[in-house]
Amino acid sequence: MTGLCAIFRKELSDHFSSYRFVILFALIAMVSFITSYMAGMQLSDNLEALSKTRFPYLMLFSTPGAVFSMVQFVAFFGPLIGLVLGFDSINRERAHGTLIKIVSQPIFRDAVINGKFLAGVVTILVMLVAIVMVITGFGLSIVGIVPTFEEIWRIAVYLIMSVFYISLWLGVSILFSIAFRSIATSALASVALWIFLSFFVTLGAEAVADSIAPIEKQDVQAETIMRNVRIKEGLSLLSPMVLYSEATTTIIDPMRKTTGTMLFMTPLEQILSSRFQNPLSLSQSLIVVFPHVTALIALTLICFAVSYILFMLQEIRS
Fold first, then answer.
1. What confidence score (pLDDT) does residue 59 get?
2. What gap in Å lies between CA 127 and CA 122, rounded to an integer?
3. Where are the domains of the chain?
4. How far apart are CA 170 and CA 162, in angstroms?
5. What is the pLDDT of residues 44-68, one digit of tens each?
6. Pairwise CA distance, residues 292 & 191, whole Å
């Protein structure tokens, strides 16, 4: 594709050389360092219990530090990386008058949007890999944990899911950058959508579940509780943060055998499940989270496809 490599290199250079990237990466890295350091200190204080764990390295990512674990931190604040990288990717070029100059060169128009998106994805990947390597270093130096091949593969899957999750918000920010000419408006719309989908959807799901299947304290029935939980979990899946959190938690914790928060079992099922307390293999964990991962990938591709179509149909000179 003519011009794609040139746009990709230019955008990648802009990302890595901008003060915005340096400040964002420093902030994310600092919080990640503190979280992983405190998790490592907690694990080092419980070496006896840690020695009985089959996957101690993964606990560096799932053990809460001061407030969040590493997995929870990326789920809550990872979207800010994508939003910051892309909220002014198109309308900044339009405001400075450089977009017309770019497309007037022997460069296909779709190379512009493709190059910007790919450069953002690579930047996200570099940031996440750097953070994971630092956490690995903390684990080796503080606790002396060496990851096994199973744990390495699980972290690799976690990285891939994290890249798609943050790239979804990168696509959202690029979409608003195309739709709105004002940089402030596109930034505000991106942040507003992130807050709504990440926080208010779960609150709304709980309110809807309580209105459809209210749980009375005087007469609590298992069927009512189960219906309430199913409605709440089903509506919460409209949030990309919930999709990502449930999928990554299942991948990072091999002992977790379902993405649900509550599971009712008969006495016979409880007896049978107690006999199978071994952790899931990576392939089995992937089967459990396959719907969530598919939904995340689909949302990311759909968001970028809408941005692509809108950019291709938009008049540049206006």
1. 78
2. 9
3. 4-313
4. 12
5. 666 555 566 777 778 778 777 666 7
6. 23
